[in-house]
Amino acid sequence: MSEVGYATAVDGSPLTLKALVRRQRIVGAAIELGTEGGYEAVHMRVVAERAGVALATVYRYFESKDHLLSAAVSEWTAQLQTNLARSPARGD
Description:
- By secondary structure, the protein is an all-alpha fold.
- The chain is 63% helix and 0% strand.
- It has helices spanning 17-37, 44-51, 55-61, 65-86.
C-alpha cells in the first residue's frame, strides 16, 4: 500500500484510516480487473461492486477512470518492486 498514506479525497480533504482502507480496496479491485481484461475491463461501476462500495464512493476518491488506473498502476508497481526486493531475479 505504497501511496495510501498520501491519499486524499477528490476535494483534497484528508482521509480517515477507514477511508484509506476503503480506497485501497477500490485500487485493489481496479488492479484485479485490469489484470483480467486490460483497460477496457475496468468500469467504475464494476470496480465499485468488486470493492463493495457505492459508485459515488469511487468518485469521492478518483475523478475518473484514468485517475483510478494511474493509482492502480502506481500501487501495482510498488508491489512489484517489493516482491523483487524480497526475491531478486537470478542469472543474467
